[in-house]
Design goal:
The protein is an alpha+beta fold. It contains eleven helices and seven strands.
């Protein structure tokens, strides 16, 4: 996955570098039409910088490429502002460059590559912005302002900067929300079985306890699970847990299924269908062939059921299901006790 992301990032960098070269050529033509001679000549080494950028990208030296790009963009922004004045809006790019730097650092973190000095680069950009705009405010631009060109470029540059800010702000917020969702999911899901864990189930039990709808819970235990681990090994035990989790998902539709701990599971069920559903589940496990390392493993489950009772706390409700499970365990196992 990391390799694929690196290739994707390299491809994206090629595209961005090509787009920058096209922009430099377009600006070079504009500088010529606007008689900004120095900026026309300055565009020539700028082109060579980005052509050299292709070599750095090809060799995977993205950190070096970004260092050169940030430095040159900052220099370019400062010189165009000094030459043309801030009425053209080139100084506005400093506002979009800083979020891009921090986004680049985020990508470097994700890809486990060398990170850039965001604080230093940000300080340099801010300093360049202040010096160039102050120079224009005190002495005016080097070249005489063309009102038409300045209006067009102010509008265009402003829209581009706002587009960058909107994109990176949206991307950052979406990333944060996605990370929060994944962290929440990870905190609610048992890694081995893919079922919900005890923490998640306790929240759902609290909701069910206070709901007007009738519900019941089923406490399920794998019979002789310790023997399975001892005889066939813990990998076989994990295999059994994973397979039973799949059988539960197939047979307990519209239920909330959790791994309660070890070889125990807890299922929250709508009241009417509980007993029949659990009997079908027990039969499905009993009939299923469990084969690990070419060895047949006999697996069964015992299930204890308890209907929600408003006179009992949630803990007592769970305890009632556990007591029914104990009756089933001591009464021969592989059965459902209501």
């Amino acid at each position: 996955m990391q390799e694929m992301n690196s290739k994707g990032l390299k491809k994206l960098t090629y595209i961005v570098n090509s787009a920058i070269i096209v922009m430099v050529l377009g600006l070079m033509l504009f500088f010529y039409l606007d008689h900004a001679t120095f900026l026309v000549y300055f565009s020539i080494p700028t082109l060579f910088v980005y052509i050299f950028g292709y070599i750095l990208i090809a060799k995977g030296l993205l950190s070096g490429y970004l260092t050169i790009v940030y430095f040159w963009l900052t220099l370019y922004m400062g010189l165009t502002t000094i030459c043309l004045g801030y009425s053209y809006g080139f100084h506005l790019y400093s506002m979009s460059m800083i979020p891009i730097i921090y986004y680049t650092n985020y990508m470097a973190y994700k890809l486990n590559t060398k990170r850039v000095f965001t604080g230093l680069y940000s300080a340099i950009i801010i300093l360049c912005y202040l010096l160039s705009t102050m120079r224009v405010a005190v002495n005016g631009p080097i070249y005489e302002e063309n009102i038409l060109y300045s209006q067009i470029f102010w509008m265009g540059n402003s829209l581009i900067v706002f587009a960058f800010l909107v994109f990176y702000t949206k991307y950052t917020v979406d990333t944060m929300i996605d990370s929060e969702k994944r962290l929440k999911e990870m905190s609610y899901v048992d890694r081995l079985t893919g079922l919900f864990n005890r923490h998640y189930m306790m929240e759902r039990l609290d909701e069910a306890y206070n709901s007007i709808n009738e519900s019941m819970i089923a406490m399920i235990d794998i019979d002789d699970f310790k023997r399975i681990n001892d005889v066939y090994g813990h990998n076989a035990g994990d295999y059994v847990l994973e397979k039973i989790a799949l059988i539960m998902k197939e047979n307990c539709k519209d239920c909330i299924i959790s791994r309660w701990g070890g070889e125990e599971f807890l299922i929250l069920i709508n009241y009417g269908s509980g007993l029949d559903m659990m009997e079908k589940l027990r039969e499905a496990v009993d009939k299923e062939k469990f084969v690990f390392d070419e060895k047949d493993i006999k697996v069964s489950v015992t299930i204890g059921l308890a209907v929600r009772n408003k006179d009992l706390s949630i803990d007592k409700w769970i305890q009632a299901a556990d007591e029914k499970l104990y009756i089933g365990k001591t009464g021969g196992k592989n059965k459902v006790v209501e």
